[in-house]
Amino acid sequence: MENRDTFLIDLRGEALGMISDQSSSEEIFQNKILRPILRLQNELFIQVFLNYAVKQKNVFFSLTPEKKMAYIENVIQRDIKFRNSLKGMIIGLFTVDEYQEYIKNSSNLNKRMMNVLIERLKSQVQLLELD
Length: 131
Description:
Blueprint: H1 2-12, H2 25-40, H3 42-55, H4 65-78, H5 80-91, H6 96-104, H7 106-123
Helix pairs in contact: 2-7, 4-7
């Protein structure tokens, strides 16, 4: 287990965002664990979202940029199967200790996880086009 944990931590790299003495445990988890995983998985998330949009009859691609932003948020909030798939891509890169920390407060951490992912996809909406 030690080798897997070390490998995952090294693969993800440094924490992203501020961590201070005043940071909550959720904020520390977000910046130390979630953000680096989301950065690592970014290209995969883009491809997964594009595949989802194609399977939904390509509606996304004909929307205005503002409506694309709303679509991203709406899909990730409301499509439970899709959201669970995205969560699995993140949780699969937790160490055992991180997972045990996660399950103590999974509801709030899931909200943070999905909000950060939504913002990440929205900030890259220009990349969400079919080639």
